[in-house]
Amino acid sequence: MQRSLAGNAAILVASGFAVRMLGFVYRVYLSNLLGAEGMGLYQLISPVYLLAVLTITSGISIAVSRLVSREQALEQEYNARRILWTSFFIGTALGTLAGLVMFLFPDFLSSAVISDPRARDALRILAFCVPVVCMTTALKGYFYGSQKMTPNAVAQMVEQGVRILTTGYLIQYLGGAGSGIPVSTACAYAMAGTVTGEMSSFLVVMGIYAFGRKRRSSPHSCSFTFGRRKAAYKVLGIAFPVSANRFVTSLMGTIETVMIPGRLQTGGLSINESMAAFGRFSGMSMPLIYFPAILTSALSTTLVPAIAEAVARGDLRRVNHRIDKSIRYTMATGILFSAFFLAFPHAIGNLAYPGENVGGSLQMLALCCVFMYLSQTLHGILNGLGRQNQLFWHALTGYGIRILAVWFLIPLRGMEAYAVSITISLGVTCILNLRRAARDTGLSFNVRDWLIKPLPAGIAVIGVRVLAGLLPFWGQMRLELAAAFVAIGFGIACLFAFGVIRRGRDFH
User: Fold this and answer.
1) Which one of 223, 276, 355, 475 is most buried, counting C-beta atoms within 10 A?
2) Does residue 293 fall inside a structural domain?
3) Would residue 283 count as lying in a domain?
4) In 3D, which of 182, 371, 342, 365 has the Cα closest to residue 284?
5) DSSP 367
6) Does residue 288 lie in a domain region?
């Protein structure tokens, strides 16, 4: 029996919390080892790798999840398995091709694209990761489409644990922590940890699928109703536009990221200062801002098959019910943590990265939490509705705003201008996506539940900060952290008191 949306989301939230805690420890460890400049280089390498990976995997993941969900809703398990393996081989072929490009041309990518030759070794190591990630994505898409979240949750935790252990071992054993190993070498070790983590994730999901395959037999069908060629057409029909869209948006994201250090230098910073500023902003502050998105990330993932299943059954009422409640929880999360990072940026920044002075960056990014989290949920909603083309054009609009800000405003106002541009671009994208979802489903804008009811939680957080600031010993680290935790507690209590978080039938 399939779990409810709430059950699936709860599994992903729990595993996501564990994974993000591990990832947070990993980030802090890397940050202390590399410093702000090293994290800047690490952040420059990531977009090139993600450009290759996300271009392929985003389309495959959505295609498998939607098609498997649809076929299983029609009680055609054999067709679902054909979809899986067709996607698996397509992903393997494309991933191998992309990996070869990264392996054979690391000098061009590091010098001409990233503009930092120190990235060469890390890129070459990451080349081995691309085909593995593509294979894993097909299997994860099958489990998501089947609305079975536990295998993917286990795989994520194993991946993160293996990555941390591998990176730590390599740096300790080969480099020696604190021995002053070059930034390029440390980044290469970190990427080697990424490769072993992804390999372990693949082995986990493959093992779970193989074990489950032996134990189950389909009671609904005993033959395929379409061939491999038709399965390939079905997969590519969804995956190609999604991947093409992802390629363009990822390319724009890469261009945006690579431009930032140069525009900071145009504004008067040195090379080292610009890399350090970029590292504090993207490599340190952004992960903290994204950390609470565990809930919205889980919702985005579970909404694709859940909405696709409801659409296949023609149950528009359930579609609207799921969308409405997902947006309500997302807005509550965004408002609560926008207030939290706005009120306690320096306490949180100093706790995570002592001496790195990331509080200013956290405060600049605080207001974008609402739109950042909401964009994840709306992305899952529109993917479930099959509106990939609209997602593409809306994302393109957002990136256009940010790239213009990077070019024209960063030399004048630095990273503050970039933070404002992120908030504005995400806000515009969310409005466009919400309008599209409302047109397709007839969804009503529930301003009371989405905005008015969660507001007291944010006000409570700000209120605790104001009152704590009147205490005579304010400014001490322990007092600030205690006030921050009290503020979050009051905020969550407000969400319960005003009926934002409810027990019962919300997501069934």
Assistant:
1) 276
2) no
3) no
4) 365
5) G
6) no
Give the range of the structural domain holding residue 469, as residue numbers without chain letter: 314-503
Alpha-carbon distance of 1 to 147, in angstroms, equals 10
Residues 6+ apart with CB under 8 A from 15: 149, 152, 153, 154, 156, 157
How many CA within 13 A on the CB side of residue 222? 1
In a domain, residue 20? The reply is yes
Question: Look-up: residue for tokens 């994860």?
Answer: 140
Q: Which segments within 296-415 are labelled E, that is strand?
A: none
pTM: 0.70
pLDDT digits (tens, 9 = 90+) for 91-126: 999 999 999 998 998 888 888 777 778 888 888 998
CA 5 to chain centre: 19
323 shares its domain with 176: no
> What phi-psi label fits residue 503: left (phi over 0), alpha (psi between -120 and 50 degrees) or beta?
beta
Q: Which residue has the tokens 């299983």?
A: 72
- H/E stretch holding 74 reads none
CA distance 361 to 448: 31
Q: What is the DSSP string of 261-288?
A: HHHHHHTT--HHHHHHHHIIIIIIIHHH
**Domain boundary residue, one of 227, 258, 276:** 276
- DSSP for residue 113: I
Instruction: Give the model confidence (pLDDT) of 33-91 as tens digits.
Output: 666 667 777 777 877 787 788 788 888 888 898 888 888 877 788 888 889 999 999 99
